[in-house]
Fold each of these.
Amino acid sequence: MTDGSFLANAEGLRQAADALLNPRPSEAALTLPSALPETGLGESEALERLAPIVIGQARRLGAPEAFAHMDPPTPWIAWAATLWTAALNQNLLHPDTAPVARDLEVRVVDWLAPLFGMDGGHMVPGSTIANLTALWAAREVAGAEIVITSEAAHLSVGKSAHILGMECVKLPLDARGGLAADALPKDLSKAVLVLTAGTTSAGVIEDLSLAARAAWTHVDAAWAGPLRLSPRYAGRLDGVERADSVAVSAHKWLFQPKESGLILFRDSAAAQQAISFGGAYLAVPNVGVLGSHGAIAVPLLATLLAWGRAGMAARIERCMAAAEDLWEFLSGHPGVEVFEPQDSGVVLWRPRGAESVDPVLQRLAPGLASKTQVAGWDWIRQVAANPNVDVKIVSASIGLALAAGLSDAGQEGT
Ligand SMILES: *Cc1c(COP(=O)(O)O)cnc(C)c1O
């Protein structure tokens, strides 16, 4: 007898979609068994129990006030394509089980790589793995022994160097908050230079004209890379085409479900060959860090097919406009100090003269802002990852939080 759990169940899928379409907010505590249940509830009951928790208690990344992190809402076309890929479960490790999924990944990489001057690459679960893959290729292809980057590099750069047994040197920042070019060693013949396009804390795009001076240059464009799709902002990453490799997180500014990212190479044949392994049960060599690898390209391909380059750029530009509007509001506020530059939709500010940003931050709705440290100061950080953010709502809440914070400070003073 066929086990119906493995067949498409229209009623069950409708129940799941309905829970998503009509989310019921829930304050209910986690009411799940603490130990592995011996007998199952059945699919329908499991969905019924989980919906109020999984959906009801989730943060809404597309809410009008969501402006805190590099985590975007995802478009419904990506939900639909993800449902397909979960149902089909293609494994790109085996051409046999993934006859078209492999080609679809090649196609989406071919669409995106030229924007960065790269000729190919592969998809990875995010830029942490992309950075690791890049440094590995740099070691194998260019004989790089040391990683040189800036203080603003993402932690995954140091982590990757550690895994690979490479020394990691972090150079100081210039006044703009990017790698200080005059601190670069003269001899970079044994070095992989990692430049960041969109630093995690402040969104600073480092000087990419520094590319091509080292044995290998890797650009960590996890956050700001997608600006290359926008004619208006693409120039901010000029110089990236001279890098040897580029990391981009598709689950950030390409609005993809996690975990989706790209590692791109200028000479992908040489780079990928150097990080490939064969095996008795493999029909084709296994490229890069991952073993089994799903069809994460399909939601990205579906989104790009639905929107085109222009549609994707329009969403990113809407995020940039939101950041610019917020920046304008903040820089016109007498009680606020704002961080410059404004490179990639990350806005940092602090109540002027305040010792701590916490009292103001605590008055802001969860998901409206986060906190970071730059140049020895705490800053309130806002990231324009949500094309549906409403800056009027955000600035009104900030105005109220500041007024309350200022009056507290006044009381303390008297
Ligand atoms: C987010 C980020 C990373 C890590 O990427 P994941 O996709 O989270 O693994 C690396 N570098 C920068 C600059 C980032 O912003």
Note: The first helix runs from residue 10 to 21.
Amino acid sequence: MTYLGVDREGLVDLDRLRDAVTDDTLLVSAMSANNEIGVLHPLREIAAIAHAKGALFHCDAAQSAGLVRLDVKQLGVDLVSLSAHKIYGPKGIGALYVAKRDPAIAVDALIDGGGHERGYRSGTLNVPAIVGFGKAAELCRESADADTARLRALRDRLWRALSAVDGIGVNGPMDPRLPNNLNVRVAGVHGESLLKAIAGDVAVSSGAACATASAEPSHVLRAMGLSDEEARASIRFGLSRFNTEQEIDAAAAIIADAVRHLRR
Ligand SMILES: *Cc1c(COP(=O)(O)O)cnc(C)c1O
């Protein structure tokens, strides 16, 4: 396994990827969008680099599903993983897309036993979760374009308000970026202290939800070259379909107040 670093913007260097993929490489795996800073990776280029050496390309699209169109055929993506609760569906269910290829892509079983789901995952199907995932996907398909435009406008509104506060900078590029993501660092303020100060009013995160048990600064921000101090001074906003302009304005005002208070 070879892990590749990212640049200051959180993007993989395609030349380094080209050097790292050899005739022995089975699989290249990349997120479509990073879960902390929302940067969008160049999937078509990554797929082409993998395929040039006969490797498969897997894309973790859990963050971008429902917000950024992903045409597996056009992009040449071989495997895609998705999680229902990221598109307003139930927790505990996801999907793995496996392209039809010749020879067929062989995927190891996740759970052995009865051989359900073509041997990928044995066990009786969780029908309510499957139906919920399907319904969530249907709703996403209907409202994706409108949601994307609305979320981008709300996110930009939040950023305009926050950038008026001294010493707040954005982490990662504004474009290409998920329309609902904003990740900022607040000079001189510890992200955890800010989180505590606004708890109950605004729900934000100081890193990835999967890493809340860890006191370490975000490895994503560290990989982008931020110092420990800058990474610890960062918080992440994830906007949802249900957020309103009033909530955005209230959140920005609460955060600006808390920052002033903490700095004092
Ligand atoms: C949330 C997430 C996962 C994990 O999915 P769960 O269903 O919550 O376990 C994996 N990858 C990315 C990019 C995610 O955002």
Note: Strands lie at 27-31, 56-60, 79-83, 94-98, 168-170, 181-186, 234-238.
